[in-house]
Amino acid sequence: MKRGIAFAALLILCAFAVSFSAPVSLAQDTDQMPVAPSATSNTTIVRCGKLIADADEPAIDGGEVLIVDGKVTAVGRNLNAPAGANREDFTKYTCIPGLVDAHIHLWTGPRGKYPSLPLATIRATKAMAYAVDSGIVAARVLGGEGFIDVALKDAIEEGTIPGPHLVPAAHAISIPGGHGDFYDFPPQLTPENFYTPENGFINSPADAEAAVHWQLKYGARVIKILASGGVLSPLDSPLSEQVSEEELKVIVEQARNAHVKVAAHLENLPTIWACLHAGIDSVEHGAGLDQGAANYMKARGTYLTPTLYIANNIVENGAKMHMPDYAIRKANLIWQGELQGFKIALATGLNIVAGSDQTYEPGKGTVRDEIMTDVRFGATPQQALHFGTKASAELLGLDNVGTIAIGKEGDVVAVEGNPLEDIHALERVRGVIVKGQLLPPANRY
Ligand SMILES: [Zn+2]
To answer: Cα(2)–Cα(6) distance, rounded to whole angstroms?
Structure first.
């Protein structure tokens, strides 16, 4: 029985190794299970009906991409592919760069349940497979428990599991009872050792400093502050201000010292101003953003991650999705403010990125839904595609994704239709190539 499980596990590992790491080293390793002889070439040529290599440039009719050892080596028309190269025929489709989600969390099971960290991690692993199968090649994880996001990043980078490049925040920094506190246990049941800076909870500037240090020590590559209240937390109001000016200052200072950026969850104007004055890099959600704050952001290059899809979806479908009453009430409270902030940001020409605020529960919403919602509320398809590829990659500090260009990762997503004419083409993903390897279509949802 045990042997059967080990054998199955080895098969699965081999399947991943073939898809996600260099097949060349596999062939030399005599300890490996024999694998089916496949196209062993390290070179892939992708032929596209149309190629949008860069969201800011016109599409290339009949465009092609040459990928060698996982990296793009040529982009254009009538490319010379060496004999024996793998050929991917996407001539019926439009090819676009892999999508980049600037704001995600991790699916760890049904809302309101508290799985063990191992179970939570196994579920999140499935979420990462869903993300990459959906054409998402990079994502920023803005808050979660137990350093699971850091573990996933390491496992993805070493080729152990499939998934997008991750920029993890580890625990978001919150006050007890604030937007990072999802536990409405009575005081007699609250464990004393839970509300600690290591777990992201702060009550003072000293705690704030410690909280940043702990996140960085265990692998955070961005710091997330929950500066205002939010929608999904049971205990607080989105209109509340939760982190003091001194705490904000300390958090930004410590992040700067470590050369990582700071993202701030903001659902009202006073906290937007407090965080802008502290020097944060991105405003998340941004309900209440007005022209004055937008001008200040424009002058400093501060990014906005609007997250329209999640707020709008709760307002329109919250009851159908069995969301708790408090979440529906609070989503209604901030929705108009988020929409208004997005429209001001568009008109002001701010750096906008696409963040879904989704957990990548298999089969559920992705950054594709955020991009489509941006178009529904006033962005052009070209702008929205820019938000969800180039702009997000830039904010995440990932210069190897965001466009299809020489030297970047060999990631290509094929969609049916032209997303620059109809953004809903993003709902019709027909192929995903990551680092030159076509993902098996059975994994797509
Ligand atoms: Zn979030």
So the answer is: 6
